[in-house]
Amino acid sequence: MKALVVADEVEERLWTSAVRNHRADLVIGAGDLPYDYLEFLAGALDVPCVFVPGNHDPDLSGYTRYGGLSMKDGFPTVWPGPAGGVNADGRIVDVGGLRFAGLGGSVRYNDGPNQWTQRQQARRARRLVRRARLRRLRDGRNVDILLTHAPPRHCGDREDPPHRGFDCLHRTIELLRPKWLLHGHIHPHGEPVPDRVVGGTTVRNVVGHRIMEFV
């Protein structure tokens, strides 16, 4: 399984037919990208797309989809997310043969969407772990990738309030034991960004784009 993994920075050369030069079976989005960009990438490559929203993305809460029909508050409506994309935020989803656990958003720093206090995100993370356990009881499969927008605290984050990571992700990694945690939110600005290892999980900043192969 080879994936085009993107976050935070639109790369104009990918927003053309040249993206087809990349061989990928899946598009993974870690937040803060235009939804039509994700939609274009998945459509051009003719592959599935899984994503979590970032703190600059529109609020997708409250939307449900049944048989291709999008609903909110009991009424049909247009879903603002990428057509065909799977929103993993707060969910356990299987896409392209991989199992994802998703936690989108950043630490709260103003009144924008997809922002959470440390306590709120910790509650969301606990619910996510419970859902993962139930799925594992049913089919015996573990989570392959923990897909987040913000990183774990003190694991490649920054000290300014908007870019601090989430404390709860350390406990989430410990309980889910995914092979990977993929995140965006922290722009390297030309600096090298080494992978970090927490327990047995590799934490990778995917701002911009990465081509990754999952075994």
TrEMBL record:
Domain of life: Bacteria
SUPFAM superfamilies recorded: Metallo-dependent phosphatases
The Calcineurin-like phosphoesterase domain, residue ranges: 13-188
Residue stretches in coiled coil: none
MF terms in GO: hydrolase activity
Matching Gene3D superfamilies: 3.60.21.10
Family annotation (Pfam families): Metallophos
Protein's name in the database: Phosphoesterase
Organism lineage string: Bacteria, Bacillati, Actinomycetota, Actinomycetes, Pseudonocardiales
